Amino acid sequence: xxxxxxxxxxxxxxxxxxxxxxxxxxxxxxxxxxxxxxxxxxxxxxxxxxxxxxxxxxxxxxxxxxxxxxxxxxxxxxxxxxxxxxxxxxxxxxxxx
Length: 97
Hints:
Blueprint: H1 14-25, E1 29-30, H2 31-38, H3 42-54, E2 58-65, E3 68-75, H4 77-95
Antiparallel strand pairs: 1-3, 2-3
């Protein structure tokens, strides 16, 4: 079996990797929190969030706080499982001697 079989192409980009890393240790994060932590533009973050949503790795919840729209994200069960597999594959690759 190849060492890179379980490396997930969806997580290839550092921004998607960052989004998932943040969501794995937080119950949820809103758009502004992700934008600030990852230091990215609105458009850049939106496109990467969409890729993760399309893969069904994150859930999107839109709500209003007062009169302001708020979008927050959380991982799905599938997303958590796939991200864990990805991290394990990276660890195996790194530790392979």
